[in-house]
Amino acid sequence: MAWEKKPLAAALAVALLLGLCRGDVVQFIFGDSLSDVGNNNYLKKSLARAALPWYGIDFGRGMPNGRFCNGRTVADVVGDKMGLPRPPAFLDPSLDADTIFKNGVNYASGGGGILNETSSLFIQRFSLYKQIELFQGTQAFMRDKIGKAAADKFFGEGYYVVAMGANDFINNYLLPVYSDSWTYTGDTFVKYMVSTLEAQLKLMHTLGARRLTFFGLGPMGCIPLQRYLTSSGGCQESTNKLARSFNTQAATLLERLSASLPNATFRFGEAYDYFQDIIDRPYMYGFNNSRAPCCTLGRIRPTLTCTPLSTLCKDRSKYVFWDEYHPTDRANELIALETLRKLNITVVNNGTSS
After folding, report:
1. Is 96 annotated as catalytic?
2. Residue from 32, 33, 35, 168 carrying the catalytic annotation
3. Which CATH superfamily does the domain covering 27-343 fall into?
């Protein structure tokens, strides 16, 4: 990483303190492919990368940027609507102290899970524990640049977003090649996930996180890949049941931590029922397809990733899903707006730019 060698520490510290007094804060995002903005593109051995067309076709210049989508992620939209800058990927070579100070950092990694063992078949990915470890490195770096007091204030005033859990099911528990699939029942696996998440969120609190939102899971049994694996082409209700169970227990955890940890405002954000309704009644939301991905390789299914050889649907704004796993830009926007509504967060930016 291209850390700046000789920053003006005093100037940065003064600017930081003035900025925080004005309410200028940044985000630190932890997550998986639903929030990744390029980290996995720098993990050259990773099998989970969004480095080829047609990823990013509706974002900026239309080139792949590491987002597993045609456009924006849910985290992009949520931050935009809150008037917050978009944090760059941790592995972005241009990341330096000034960039961190102005924009924060995104540690999200495609394939990442709450559990360390999740998505090991992808070879390279950052689990949540690894992302927290990288965050600790960022903290040490900023303390060296602007001093402990200014850095601690900076990190204490930040917004923290954690959005993980789907891979722990899709790329772990539900695949018999992973030992977790035959070590646990559905109920005990969810409890294992939630207890691990509790330790991780408590660790983040000790590191300074005070305002944190955990994004719950959507109806992951309805992603195109899961539908394809059923004989009827319908949603996998057993998979959706796991998502709902996790959401219920995670919401209880966030409420308990917010009440018990000093000065903590830990919140649970989700749009499960809303997303399910989009899938069940796509026409009511302006879509005409909620079953198949927009990006496909002709009649070949499943195509686990979008490639230059893939064919795109005629109108990307009419499809709920971009590829076998991930929603489109338009679906992400609607999910983000519903999440903000349920959290009673005021939208300060109504723009829709990429």
Report:
1. no
2. 33
3. SGNH hydrolase (3.40.50.1110)
